[in-house]
Amino acid sequence: MWEYTDKVKDHFINPRNVGFIDDYDGMGEVGSLACGDALKLTFKLGDDGKIADAKFQTFGCASAIASSSALTEMIKGLTLEEAAKVTNEDIAVFLGGLPKEKMHCSVMGRDALEHAIANYKGETVKEKEGEIVCECFGITNLEIERAVIESGLTTVEDVTDYVKAGGGCGNCHDQIGEIIKAVSDKSVTESQKMETLTNIQKIKLIEETLDREVKPALNQDGGDIELVDLSGDTVLVKLHGTCSGCSSAQLTLKNYVETKIKDLVSPELVVEEVTQ
């Protein structure tokens, strides 16, 4: 049985913003009933150009409902440019973490938002760009590659948890493994480039990553993070606000903060918390 945080349970039992905005500015629809997950998201802009209201309708599990509820809460008050930067990892952090087997639910929310913003701009999000790898769920090589890069996935099982690919007949497992290896090989090459940087340059890249990718998500829930030092390949950080002493702190550090730093700075880096 999966372990859900109190916040996930709250957003499942008492979902926020359920419904449909008739005079919406943007509408996005992803998933399908045949696959067991479907989500429709609508938003309305205020006079200031920021998202004044957002609602969702979903067919799915507790994680799908909680993730959709969280997403609509997170994007209210944001500009479309700011909302477009919300990732599935941000949604998971907002909820205090999701079981890895249910991370694909937060990915679905991010994709629905992407479609809704494109709808508002009169653009078309190319459906299934790339080559289909998983025939059972219609997942392409580019979708798998994106998930591997964004979430630091290292196994076929991880990919299945995040985007469902490989969760059916299993015939695509070898192809998924090849995609993971290709991303890993590229990361190793970039890591070799990192070895030529000075410690000060590495610290600057880490600080930029924290400021741009991590702090905004933590700030939304009253938390914050501070870079204390870089010792070899160990990034020492201190958590503040609601993140300090939180029962999900280690989950946030390893599944979110460390993943972002590994992806955007160097795959060799690990994150540890300084408690004093």
Number of domains: 3
Assign an overall shape: globular
Using only CA atoms, what is the Rg?
Answer: 19 Å
Number of helices: 10
CATH uppermost class of the largest domain: Alpha Beta
- N-to-C series of helices and strands: HEEEHHHHEEHHHHEEHE
Approximate helicity band = 40-55%
Q: Which CATH architecture of the largest domain? A: Alpha-Beta Complex
Our measurement of the CA-to-CA distance between the termini, rounded to an integer number of angstroms, reads 35 Å
Strand ordering within the main sheet: 1-2-3
Task: Estimate the strand proportion.
Answer: 15-25%
Poorly predicted ranges (pLDDT <50, ≥5 residues)? none
Average pLDDT figure: 86
CATH fold label of the largest domain: Sufe protein. Chain: A
| Structure class | alpha+beta
Number of strands: 8
Protein architecture, described:
The protein has 276 residues and is an alpha+beta fold. The chain folds into three domains: 6-121, Sufe protein. Chain: A, CATH 3.90.1010; 132-191, BFD-like [2Fe-2S]-binding domain (Arc Repressor Mutant, subunit A, Orthogonal Bundle); 199-273, GMP Synthetase, Chain A, domain 3. The chain is 47% helix and 18% strand. It contains ten helices and eight strands. The protein has a three-stranded antiparallel beta sheet with strand order 1-2-3. Strands 6-7-8 form a three-stranded mixed beta sheet, with helices on one face. The two termini are 35 Å apart. The model has no long low-confidence stretch (mean pLDDT 86).
